[in-house]
Amino acid sequence: MRYPIGFRARIRDDVRRIDGRLLVGGSPLRAVRLTRAALALLADGEVTVVDAVTDALAARLVDGNLADPVLDGPGVEPAELTVVIPVRDRPEQLDRALSSLGALHRIVVDDASLDPEAVARVAHRHGAHLVQLTRNVGPAGARNAGLRAVRTRFVAFVDSDVTVEASTLLNLTRHFADSRVALVAPLVRSRARSREPRWFERFDEDDSSLALGTRACVVRPGAAVGWLPSACLVGRTERLGAGFEETMRVGEDVDLVWRLVEAGEVVRYDPEQVAWHDTRTTVSGWLGRKYLYGTGGADLAVRHGRKGAPAVMTASMAATAAALLVRRRWSLPVAAAGIAYGVLSLRRRLPETPGRDRLAVQLCAQGLGWTVRQEAALLLRHWWPLTVLLAPRSALIRRALAASLVVDVVVAQVDNPGTRYRPLARRLDDMAYGAGLWAGAIRARSVTCLLPRRPGQGGTSPNG
């Protein structure tokens, strides 16, 4: 059995239950009709594992992101977890990172610091084991050097500019009650250390590239969360094999997650647990990091194909969303035809159930909204060099660009309610990431990382 006896999984509150037996939700979106026997095993939307049948039902619901595990049991013992911290200089940040980890066993890997003595003093003051590298190998290689020194069943990777409590890491290990879970990560939020944070630091606090939302998720290409940042990860030591791909200086965390998923492992995201990442303290450092994230897209596309696509949409929804963005006289008829086609297509695929027509309309509207959002992001972020090139020559592009800017405001408020909209910071963020994406594509001589894909061809990409 996959789960221990007594393990519980609860239907998510964003899953629609129709006619009692039809579940609609999850990510990717799916409709699952429960048998009467399965329905009888659900008590108040919760299944408790008592035998092989309930184990299989819990697994199906959790893997489809239709249910979340109920994590009320203890995690592993502190002695079973080792924390690996790769660092190059940054002694002050390393001191904060080690201070927050309490008595957990810690391995500091000095990746050929310019001042190795400063790093050694901090590591020794906290009683951490120090691995000193004489050649700079990058974050992936440094983490792997630490991984080779781990002697416990579980390992956490924490970057030197991240502070996370020992209790948070131990809480994350509760996910390992699921025997198939190999890796789990918390919500990584950004925090400015400056006495008077500047505009770009405030933007990063509100809209960090490392923060992946507030809903728990099974992580895989195509799901609501398709990757995890290596800023903070907890895994089963033996399941990670050789660890990160050392030839990759960026995107190595995405690559690890996708390789684990391809190998049949389960990877989870748990936003109830939070780690804190220091914001960059200069504009050049902030934009440089965004640019670097973008450059990794091409390498990931070479290794994983269409999983790294910047958008996922059907041809009919793409045409419908584009018609709405350009706002011409013919836009409404085209959009109406696209919506009608989408509704009929969904209706054919949905099970026979009362309210099927209404459900098809709701799902079509939801899909159209997501497609409009993706197309706006393509124009403003991933494809902005083309947008700048074509806008002076095309009224359609200009109209779509104006609509995309409005969509961007709405998306920002939906994703980060109550925060201030910072248009300059958003545009600079988009331009830095998009420039890196195009630079990587040119260097790789491949446009794969720039092209959208149809559902079923691969997975979602990290959007930097």
What is the radius of gyration? 23 Å
Helical/strand content category? alpha/beta
Quaternary organization: single chain
CATH fold assignment of the largest domain: Spore Coat Polysaccharide Biosynthesis Protein SpsA, Chain A
Name the beta content range.
15-25%
Tell me what the structure shows.
The chain is of the alpha/beta class and 464 residues long. It folds into three domains: 8-69, no CATH class; 78-281, Spore Coat Polysaccharide Biosynthesis Protein SpsA, Chain A (Alpha-Beta Complex), CATH 3.90.550; 315-450, no CATH class. Helix content is 44%, strand content 17%. It contains 15 helices and 15 strands. It has helices at residues 36-41, 52-63, 91-99, 116-125, 138-149, 166-172, 199-206, 252-262, 283-304, 315-326, 331-349, 356-382, 384-390, 395-415, 423-444, and strands spanning 8-11, 16-18, 22-25, 30-33, 46-48, 67-69, 81-87, 105-111, 129-133, 154-158, 162-163, 181-191, 217-218, 232-236, 266-278. The strands form three sheets. Strands 7, 8, 9, 10, 11, 12, 13, 14 and 15 form a nine-stranded mixed sheet that branches. It has a three-stranded antiparallel sheet with strand order 5-1-6, with helices on one face. It has a three-stranded antiparallel sheet with strand order 2-3-4, with no helix packed on it. Strand 3 (22-25) and strand 4 form a beta hairpin. Helix 12 crosses helix 13. The radius of gyration is 23 Å and the shape is globular. The two termini are 38 Å apart.
